[in-house]
Amino acid sequence: MRYIEGINRKSKIAFPEYIDDYISEDNPVRIIDAFVASLDMIALGFKNAVPKDKGRPSYDPKDLLKLYIYGYMNRITSSRTLEKATQTNIEVMWLLRRLTPDFKSISDFRKDNKEAINLVFKQFVALCKEWDLFGKEVVAVDGSKFRASNSKKNNFNTKSLNRKIKYLEEKTEKYMAEIEENDDKESLDRKPNKEEIKEKIRELKERKEKYEAYKEEIENGKTTETSTTDPDSRLMAVNNNGVDVCYNVQTVVDGRHKLVVDCDVINNPTDHGMLSKMAKSAKEIFDVEELKTLADKGYYNAVDLKICEKENIITYVAKQVFPNSTGKEEFYLDKFKYDKEENVYICPKGERLYSRRQKPIDENTKEIVYRNFEACGKCEFKDKCTKDTKGRRIRRSIDQDCLDIVDERTSENKEFYRQRQMIVEHPFGTVKRGFGITYFLTRGLESVKAEASLAFLAYDMKRVINILGIREIIRRLTGKKAPVNPLFSKHAILFGNIKQLIA
User: Fold this and answer.
1) Most CB atoms closer than 10 Å: which of 170, 249, 391, 466?
2) Is there a single domain that holds both residue 408 and residue 262?
């Protein structure tokens, strides 16, 4: 039996005459083309949006923006692979009308238009709102770690620097001892000579000076660590209890079609303070009076939740359970019950802990301490409850009443709260697994924000394609029915007949 055979490479074939004939009417690149064509590049602030009168002409920023959107939708994110795509990818050839910018021009476009790219994402979100694709009732907020363009070896904190400096000092002392040993006696075995050892000592001293400079920078600065390749990146905990140098990407996702409403990038490993910011942004975009917001326990912060309550943002957040110093679950903080009427905490063994505060509560008060050292001194479970020699202390936040309201609301609506994962994990899963974007190529917080905007613009665009369909989107973008190219069907039939004749 014969194999399926291809055509002879030297045989003549009648390919379609026009490049447009290769791109079907329901190809997603037509949406990218129509969307970018609808943008006002001058208003968005793109560099070279107005052509120069003199000098060498530049590329139209619309063409480079189309290239990037296509790339992020199709797992092509680096400037060099995008350059190659302009020469080999028929869809990119159609999209850019056979333009072939070099990788430097492509890279510089992303570098020079950070804020404008962020605004393009917001522009598409505004389109989604105009097309009534948002439910405007329920959103979910979450963060995910994306690796930065900085290795762990090029990230330093005080602890790691002290360890490295100590090692270099010990190594230097060892080499100094070897110099003295070589001066005292000669050995038959080949050892580094005096000049070689001095060179190694010089190198060690240079490294030590470099590490000491990093340490001084940390001690005099506002951060507890420094990254030498990407100074804005930070060491963060990632999956499977590992650590890596990352950025924390925040999103707020609408519950109706899982469209990303807004995104942000921070270099803080925790999510504290971001719930109110992201939820308020969604509320302003939707222009609604009330908004239900779902979030995980990483956002369980009294100050942040209090801001949400004031802004009429109804929050559903999992309660964060804090362990005691001994690690015994039966004496965790959540096992101590608060009696609001008597203003006391009741411990798991029935003893009351009282507030001993003498100063009046004012705007500077952060928490109130409850204790009962007399009862703790007699308790047989004291060693399981606390390591404090005097006894257990419970610190109640001044905003605990707000936390109690959120806790009660969340526990009473567990089925509703379970929607959180289905809503907010979908975009991150698609971007990381579907688009292959698990790390950032650019460096610096502002550049990384532009990358994140491109990634979630590509995600939202694919979601809208699945919801409305390509022809409907083009109709809405252009204001007319998507045309059917008669040449496409004619050439397709001709090409099919030629293939049959060759076979």
Assistant:
1) 249
2) yes
